[in-house]
Amino acid sequence: MSWLADDDNEYDEFDEDLIRVRPNPKANRPRTKRRPAHEDAQEGRIVGVDRGRYSVLMAEDADDERFITAARARELHRTPIVTGDRVRVVGDTSGEAGTLGRIVSIIERTSLLRRSADDTDQVERVIVANADQMLVVVAAADPEPRARLVDRYLIAALDAGIRPLLVVTKTDLADPSDFLAHFDGLDLTVFTSGRGHVPLHDIGEHLIGHSTVFVGHSGVGKSTLVNALVPGAERATGHVNQVTGRGRHTSSSTVSLRYRSATGSGWVIDTPGVRSFGLGHVDPTHLLSGYPDLAAIAKNCPRGCTHLVNANDCALNEARAAGELSQAQQARLDSLQRLLDTFNERSS
Questions:
Q1: pLDDT tier at 1 (50, 70, 90 boundaries)?
Q2: What are phi and psi of 105, to 5 degrees?
Q3: Hey, what domains does the chain have and what are their CATH numbers?
């Protein structure tokens, strides 16, 4: 049928068959949220992160380790990918120079160690994934040990379901007995190290079969210990400023290193030294998990007890008033209540 016009020069009918429609498959394609299945993806382990590029171990056979460089796929958006993550990778996974794989998904994590800038900041900083142990490194002197910083490490570890260990270095400079008394009663394995005595074998035996994240204040000898345990690690070491008493940041990134011995292997995850460790991301009700001996006493507290200094009928306060707490327990209770005060102020 053709167009028909009347005397008023208007169209009486319109034949749609005469309209020419330009094909545009892309515009006409229905939108979908389905993503590629990536059935050919291979599993790998993140061992290092550097400016948007990820070092991935694709084969964990001790005789055939293959490392590649990979980038984040667009579908992951801003999902954090951290050292220790198990991931699925597609693309070029040969590991040859100039090649680049693509990380398309993160395998479910077994643990996640986090910290915040301070106790009032609830924005978490992810440190490492899938670690099952934390080795806290502290010096007996130079710099002076900080029991409250170690308390924070322990709380973060226990909150994440990670077993804590403690190493005290530089025991040739000072006796760590008074410092270690602060942790009496805790289920905490402790190693001591000094000039001429570094228990590498004993520490190494606790690393076998585990993924252990090393944490510590700058200048305590953490990177020196890592280098001794993992020959060839070449982690940068520094010194303590004699004026400020602070260590200089040396390790600037978190990396996973393979620990090997005649009896087995494990992973050592070295982190940059920190001078503070915020717990703003931790649920205040979980703080007692860092003090198992106090938690046992707190079971006698009334429901909803805040455990603060002025809390009525608090079993912890009553035990202190009755002289039933050891000196170390009193010090830990002071530390706990300071943390609880901080969280109480944050929520008010």
A1: very low
A2: -165, 160
A3: 42-106 (2.40.50.140), 112-270 (3.40.50.300), 284-347 (1.10.40)
